[in-house]
Predict the 3D structure of the following.
Amino acid sequence: MSLKVKLRPSKYRTRADCILCGEEFMLSGVRASLWDEKERIGNVCYECFKKGNNEFPSLLQAQVQRLRKEADDLEKLFKHSFECPTWETFQELEKLTDLFDKQFYGSEDYEDAFVQLEQKFKEILHEPKED
Ligand SMILES: [Zn+2]
């Protein structure tokens, strides 16, 4: 089976991940994507595209190795226990940041107020002040 890169106009200039190298990139007006006979497999970034199809297998091989290592690293996390604040706490903090944004966004006091906001987060989360 032959895989084919197709070029199509892209409607949106959004971020995309490259299926070959895994890097995030911004789509230009031309989207390059890799297809098998029926389906689009993923986007190809412009750096990979420039390297040309002869390089695609080795780019993909390197990406497979990175993903395999990432999977191994994630797998090691299984044995840990997890701590996480409650969703209610998350929502409380979100309300706090909404108020903060309304009051300070774009103001001169923003930086100082942000330090205060970080302290308030730590109080609510019962975390020590120093980290
Ligand atoms: Zn790429």
